[in-house]
Amino acid sequence: MEFFIANTVSGLAYAMLLFLMAAGLSIIFGLMKIMNLAHGSFFILAGYVAYTFSRSGMNFWLSMVLAVIVISIFALIIEKLFISRVHGSETDQVLLTVGLVFVLGDLALWIWGGNFLSIPVPAIFDFSLDFAGMTFPAYRLFVIAMGILFAFVLWYFEAKTRVGMIVRAGVDDMEMVSALGFNVKIIFSGVFIFGAALAAFGGVLSGPILGMYPMMEWEILVNSMIVVIIGGLGSWKGAFIASMIVGFVDIFGRIYMPTFAMAFIFILMVAILMVKPTGLFGRVES
Amino acid sequence: MKKNKRLVLAIMFVVSMFLTACGSGGGQASGDGEGEPIKLGFTLALTGNFAFMGEGVKEGVELFFEENGNKIGDRPVELFFEDDAGDPQKALKNYQQLTLNQEVDFLGGGTIGSISYALTEAAEKDKRVPIINVVGSGNSLSWGEKSDYVWRIGFSSLNYAGTLGVDMAENIGKKAVVIASDYVAGHEQATDFSANFKEHGGEVLDILWAPSGTSDFSSYINQIKQHDADAVYMFIPGADGPRFVQQFKEFGLAENYALVDGGSVLNAPSTVEAVGDAVVDGYVLSHYHVGLENELNKKFVEDYTAKYDKVPDNYVINGYDTAKVMSESIQEAGSTEVGDIIDTLKAGLSFDSPRGPIELDPKTNHPIQNHYILKGVEKDGEIVFELVRTYEKVQMPAEDPGYEKAK
């Protein structure tokens, strides 16, 4: 039983990391129809930037805030310079953003080198909790809390705020929203930056657990894609549920069927797509 | 449309800048001695994930020839370094280019296992040039896949894992859990460790296979906790290794289990920097230790630190000794003909290295050398590795001992 509980908590922590990776990607694609394959690069760059700040003596929280700001500004530049030119053409978006992944990856290799780097756990969470014979690092519990908090914030933003309403309307009928006097371009830039900021936030949060190293952006991208595909594009709800499923399948798969640990998740993905091609919470396009 | 074209041009410009910047430098002619220069070629991982290994080897080679006036005997030395980024295909291209275009007399390469196998196959087929395998640790390179043309200067999986198996059973604990990366080298290590550990009275309670690229080890850690073991043997190379070490500490395992590493992760300077005190009390085996007390090592560490402002690691010593073997064998053969060099190596070459005495064993094309058990300690706020035990003259058996495969 203890073993089961310990792994459930582990699974939950992993699921929340996956959620933070995937939520931004899902929102950007779902709302703007932009296939941003450089999403993983934003995620890992944020970790690197926060690492640099924390090495220069700043505490974890300040480094996190600054890294999120830096990546948001960076995303704004990328959006204005490149992404805005390829609106409407998914092939171009894929080619462009894959190119970005390579360039940003080499840039990171050049600046931060090829070694594994890790952000130190913030001092107030640098301890383990013992209960019922299990040990659990406090920082992971904090990550679980942040994941749930962010799911709540996203729900609130989408369902209860005026901006959320405009964004939802823009997805359904961009011309109409534009005709009503809203600046669609600004909305789109805003959503893109918000998605990148989410990735950056996740990147810094995962820094003390996953660390950063070259080519990790692909790992993040593949994980995010799986979550987004299972959950359905454009739905934070889908991303949240899918993260939980993938997290638990991964953790328990590794224990009970270790040789199939990797295949398991893909089998699950295929199964879900066979039953529901749009993903669990994906909307059917008219 | 015009705008787009300009953008494409701009991108192409940036990309071409990158390519030029990354392009490898040509030969570094050096020395002012008499006669035709001796050409030494190297294909190493100088960019990408394994760059820290290739860079170390390169630095070691350069340091050796700097100390020796860039000469072998009285002939100047010309060094060619090519980057293979840890890709066997690129390494083979470099091999062709170095042996056919540059016509090098001696080649060094094999930053990772798959490359050393690829180079061995090519060398055995072409018989063009002798090769020093700088890192690749696959056991069969000393047995079934052995080639007269390829000599190893690093270590073997069996030497590392086997010695640790013996040492763990005798000095650390009789009950162990093994966690290894789920690929060829991981299986080889787990097998070699388990067999030797059991032979000396140890008991392996469980073997966990973690796929390469595992980022979250919590489920494996929970499984380790299920066992009443004394120690955990890990072989998890690459970026996964430091992650595991960090999580091992984070989940409080460090308090109850001794951590023993067969993959040179714990004592890598980059790991210590990334995970800090998580390496304290961990054991690792190495064929080199920076604190070894001998004159050669003192000079080696001094010279290296003066030149690069850091302390040398296993890869630097491999590069340094690679250069030493090249220099010694060419001088002893009195020729740069491939046949003469091979004959010299086959007659047995031994020399003193900063890592201790080395004998290149012609039965296995593998160095007979000391292995050192190191332990992480915190000393005056700094984390260092201390020598706890030495295994002298560890050698490869001439034939595959045929251990039962670990599952």
From TrEMBL, chain B:
InterPro entries: BCAA_transport, Leu-bd, Peripla_BP_I
Protein's UniProt keywords contain Nucleotidyltransferase: no
Keywords of this entry: Signal
Signal sequence, renumbered to the chain: 1-21
Gene3D superfamilies xrefs: 3.40.50.2300
Occurrences of domain Leucine-binding protein (ranges): 37-380
PANTHER family in the cross-refs: LEUCINE-SPECIFIC-BINDING PROTEIN (PTHR30483), PERIPLASMIC BINDING PROTEIN OF ABC TRANSPORTER FOR NATURAL AMINO ACIDS (PTHR30483:SF6)
Family membership: Belongs to the leucine-binding protein family.
Protein name per the record: ABC transporter substrate-binding protein
